[in-house]
Write a structure and sequence with these properties.
- The chain is an alpha+beta fold and about 325 residues long.
- It is about 20% helix and about 30% strand.
- The protein contains 9 helices and 18 strands.
- Helix 4 (about 170-185) links the parallel strand 10 and strand 11 (about 195).
Length: about 325
């Protein structure tokens, strides 16, 4: 069933899909996002990425120009990122650098998934066991409520993010230079640690230099989270990845457990990641993975020009033409 869909990725400063831009997956060119809380560069890599139907290479630029589907032309199916030894088994990566516009408490910044509508009626048998595996294999600090009217699963950013690198405090000109430099660096993987004074800051706070040790250290209690401040104007680089979510099949493949996610999205056709300040419910940025029915895309023809955001709203919110899961979406 998954081969009947194409995947589009967008990113923006809010939940509002009209504020989003298309992310060019596996391209090496980050998407720049400005929000009231941060400046961010976002790069998404997906192994076996299927974002463009065969035969649409010439049609897609026209579709983009007329604001219809908005798939990037010629997105590579993989990235050199996955050739790096730490990532040879990973299925995807959301890499980002950001500078907060104001200082945020270490205990307040979270990263994870949420939905606009309930999914309680679509929660599969065995979910509780699967969630225990997720907490063991991916993020022990993961918490949330999948039965809520607006379901969510968040983990504290300090323990959820796989790789964290701390940089200097930069002004506007310095940030522009960093944005340009990152664009030239392409698909280079972020490494744990610090640079330009960031390593010294970590040492001063007794933050372990190893990624896994840092994650475990921050799971040690709120007092440790409170020692950390995401400082206004300081540059941070982060990477979130794992080998368990296969976007090619839209399936969660855990040790001893496999689940095709497509059938359990509660009628939604997207999966949303968000970096947000939990205490104030303010968003730093949002990344949305949207499923597009392939037959709908292949039938799409350039028509009268319309704002690209209008079509994007229909796709992300599911307000028009959202898919209905079929029987073969389920294991």
């Amino acid at each position: 069933m998954a081969d009947k869909y194409l995947l589009r990725v967008t990113a923006g400063p809010s939940y509002d899909p009209t504020s989003h831009e298309i992310v060019h997956v596996n391209s090496g060119t980050p998407t720049h996002v400005k929000s009231p809380l941060c400046d961010a560069n976002i790069s998404v890599r997906i192994q076996n990425y299927r974002g463009e139907p065969s035969g649409l290479a010439t049609a897609i630029p026209m579709i983009i120009a007329h604001g219809a589907i908005g798939l990037p032309r010629g997105s590579p199916s993989t990235s050199s990122y996955f050739s790096n030894p730490p990532h040879t088994h990973d299925q995807y990566s959301i890499g980002f650098s950001f500078t907060p516009r104001r200082t945020i408490s270490g205990k307040s910044l979270v990263f994870g998934n949420d939905f606009e509508h309930p999914v309680r009626d679509r929660i599969p048998p065995g979910f509780t066991a699967a969630f225990r595996i997720v907490k063991w294999a991916i993020d022990p600090g993961l918490d949330g409520d999948v039965y809520a009217d607006k379901p969510y699963l968040y983990g504290n950013a300090l323990s959820s993010i796989n790789v964290l690198s701390v940089g200097p405090i930069v002004d506007g000109n310095g940030l522009d230079k960093i944005i340009s430099t990152e664009a030239m660096q392409g698909e280079a993987a972020i490494t744990e640690g610090g640079f330009d004074g960031g390593e010294e800051l970590r040492q001063r706070l007794s933050i372990p230099g190893n990624a896994a040790a840092r994650q475990k250290w921050f799971l040690g209690g709120h007092d440790r989270l409170e020692t950390w401040q995401w400082e206004e104007g300081r540059l941070y680089k982060a990477d979130f990845f794992n080998p368990y979510l296969d976007f090619n099949e839209f399936a969660l493949k855990l040790p001893g457990f496999s689940l095709k996610v497509l059938g359990y999205l509660g009628g939604e056709d997207y999966l949303r990641y968000v970096l947000k300040e939990k205490d104030t419910d303010e968003v730093l940025f949002v990344v949305v993975f949207t499923l597009l029915p392939k037959d709908q895309v292949e039938e799409e023809e350039p028509r009268d020009p319309q704002p690209i955001h209008s079509a994007r709203t229909k796709q992300i919110t599911g307000a028009e033409g959202s898919f209905e899961p079929q029987e073969d979406d389920l294991d």
